[in-house]
Amino acid sequence: MKKIITTLALMLTLGTGFSFAGEIVNQQTLDAFKSEFAGATDVTWTIGKSYYKVAFTINDKRLFGYYDNEGELIAVTRFVSPLQLPHKLQNGLKKSYKDFWISDLFEVRNSDEHSYYVTLENADAKIVLRSVDKTNWRLFEKIEK
């Protein structure tokens, strides 16, 4: 499961899957989505090699769901504001990364994990951090510019 979450996080930070016109989401996945997120609106599907991504709105929130090819929900993500982070995570960013700006921040939830991923940038580098126990940040990826 950790490998799936890591892959999911990497897809989100470096770009999402591919959208193929004409391809159809399988019925099993559609049924699972309709059952889990009844009342969702603005639904848009993207098909990747080994997953389906669905963007949708529910309860005035824009969410992204990821399903495997068998219709099992892998994770739900949403973009968040830095102000929505737990206090310790906010302070960690302010203290250790004051020379960076936030270019992306999202929350990941599934049956095994609830974490945050933040992409920080400065003139020289782009780094992705993953939250640990909602209290600390751990380096997930670093990209030199």
| CATH structural class of the largest domain | Alpha Beta
| Fraction in beta strands | 35-45%
N-to-C SSE string, H for helix and E for strand: HHEEEEHEEEE
Give helix % range. 10-25%
Rg, rounded, reads 16 Å
Report the structural category. Answer: alpha+beta
The count of strands amounts to: 8
Uncertain stretches of 5 or more adjacent residues: 9-22
Any guess at the CATH architecture of the largest domain?
Roll
The outline comes out as: elongated
Number of helices: 3
End-to-end gap? 31 Å
Average the pLDDT over all residues and give the rounded result. 86
Order of strands in the sheet with the most strands?
1-2-3-4-5-6-7-8
Tally of separate domains: 2
Main beta sheet, described?
A: 8 strands, antiparallel
CATH topology (level 3) name of the largest domain: Nuclear Transport Factor 2, Chain: A
Map the helices and strands.
Layout: H1 2-14, H2 27-36, E1 41-47, E2 52-58, E3 61-67, E4 73-79, H3 87-96, E5 101-109, E6 114-121, E7 125-132, E8 136-144
Antiparallel strand pairs: 1-2, 2-3, 3-4, 4-5, 5-6, 6-7, 7-8
